[in-house]
Amino acid sequence: MNSTVREVIEWIICIVVAIVLAILIRYFIGTPTEVKMTSMSPTLKPGERLILNKIPITFGQELKRGDIITFERPSKVSGVESVKAEYNYEPENLFSSFVYYVLEIGKDSYIKRLIGLPGDHVQIQSDGVYINEQKLEESYIPKGVITYAKNEYLTDFVVPEGYVFAMGDNRENSTDCREFGCIPIEKIEGVAWIRIWPLNLFGEIH
């Protein structure tokens, strides 16, 4: 094998290894994302860029109330007659699973704040949100904003085991679990960690 061919092969191997490492880091460690909607305003605004921490999901760490999470968009977002969100899409084969779940091509995601953990008794009342009969203090919501129920099945309920309940901070303009139900933990993609754009807001997200 002459030196030119060897050099080409080495470059190909380096490129392949780099691509594989990038995919592994993106899927298991962390990945950049962009806020596109207003449902998390004023905490997060459209156009802001974030780094998602995927380590808690990869290693099955316990999520905390108040975490800002991203998750796969449910198949049905309105008219749900259950406390559980519906997910009907199933990739046809290993390749389509890779494209959808790893490369995230054709996959839509939501970003919301985790409010209810598995087993929590959630009540949405006129004066606020109650978790296990205790009113939830939500300093991230502007004064005067009212959290109202959008689905009779999701007004007074217990979060099923293996699920979480999440809402946008912009309660008056957010499509969230109040409409489509609680999200399976397995559908959570990551936890919003660092805001990297705009630069004047660079830092950890709360």
What does this structure look like?
This protein has 206 residues and is an alpha+beta fold. It has one domain (30-204): Umud Fragment, subunit A (Ribbon), CATH 2.10.109.10. Helix content is 21%, strand content 27%. It has four helices and twelve strands, in the order H-E-E-H-E-H-E-E-E-E-E-E-H-E-E-E. It has helices spanning 3-28, 55-58, 94-102, 177-180; strands at residues 30-34, 49-53, 68-72, 109-116, 121-125, 128-131, 134-135, 156-158, 163-167, 183-184, 188-197, 203-204. The strands form two sheets. Strands 1, 2, 3, 4, 9, 10, 11 and 12 form an eight-stranded antiparallel β-sheet that branches. The longest helix has 26 residues, at 3-28. The model has no long low-confidence stretch (mean pLDDT 91).
